[in-house]
């Protein structure tokens, strides 16, 4: 969730530079952390052909392209056999689109076209009228139009040594090429008594805060948190039968969204994203020629003269990182994962080292956070 990130560790580039931002509570709008259950887009898919290609379409070895061309010609009263069909200017494609939640017949949407045969490029092609179906096998839209390819392919010898290709030319888009044929019905229009909010990042505390904010603004009994993800809303009397006005008023309400301690690592790209307030228990780390020690100590703060109160006890944490016996970093204060990252960044540790250390800290129990590897 974009608005819930308290701190961000950026991707380490060439030199393995890693930084972490300090944590802090953030106030977010309700509509930024929750959506209405049942109000979502739907995926559509269809099979079609692209024509008008300059000898970059499917070869005769792709049998289904030839069969598709024959079927299309038969609809126009032409009967041909497979030997009479040449498909180098035609390509079989899969067409996909996303049907918006409140789409109505006549609306236009973008469609994506992807080759499924051995076509080398869709550049300059035109998508022939294609039906787009949903999971229930009903036709919800049709698509047709010229294809926009984000690249190019040029050569004087097809796939020869003198050819050049930029980006992917076997997939493209038809901007506003899909026409919606059916109206979308959502649960919001079916239930006049209320609806349910669904959190984009489930959390018990955030769900309770959403219900509390709604009850405080619209009156007791308006909302109830059913679980960590779902908040059931009963429309107040003044909004009876009018959930749109309620959603418009409720969407701008502010609340403090909580966040689960989590570290996300991508081993393929060396990316690590974490919350800056993730703390560590005392531990020692050895990774290759690196040694990191995290230790806590309690110190008694002297009380004021002639005071009868007990002197307060202050907990201090020290982090040291060494390489080949040489002291490199000293950090005092609360031991957070963000501070360890800064220590590793100071000594030039690579993202691969950081990922390995983070996983080891989680396994040892010192890192009290979920580690998600993507």
Secondary structure elements and their pairing?
Blueprint: E1 27-29, H1 30-33, E2 34-36, E3 42-51, H2 63-75, E4 90-99, E5 108-115, E6 126-133, E7 139-146, E8 152-154, E9 164-166, E10 171-180, H3 187-190, E11 194-199, H4 204-218, E12 223-225, E13 230-234, H5 243-250, E14 254-256, E15 262-266, E16 271-274, E17 283-287, E18 290-300, E19 313-323, E20 326-332, H6 337-346, H7 351-364, E21 370-373
Parallel strand pairs: 15-21
Antiparallel strand pairs: 1-14, 2-11, 3-4, 3-6, 4-5, 5-10, 6-7, 7-10, 8-9, 11-13, 12-13, 15-16, 17-18, 18-19, 19-20
Can you characterise this structure?
The protein folds into three domains: 2-22 and 261-373, no CATH class; 27-38 and 187-256, Alpha-Beta Complex (Aspartate Aminotransferase, domain 1); 42-180, no CATH class. The radius of gyration is 30 Å and the shape is flat. It has helices at residues 30-33, 63-75, 187-190, 204-218, 243-250, 337-346, 351-364, and strands at 27-29, 34-36, 42-51, 90-99, 108-115, 126-133, 139-146, 152-154, 164-166, 171-180, 194-199, 223-225, 230-234, 254-256, 262-266, 271-274, 283-287, 290-300, 313-323, 326-332, 370-373. The chain has seven helices and 21 strands. The chain is 18% helix and 35% strand. The strands form six sheets. Strands 3-4-5-10-7-6 form a six-stranded antiparallel beta barrel. Strands 2-11-13-12 form a four-stranded antiparallel beta sheet. A four-stranded antiparallel beta sheet has the order 17-18-19-20, covered by helices on one side. The two termini are 16 Å apart. It has 374 residues and is an alpha+beta fold.
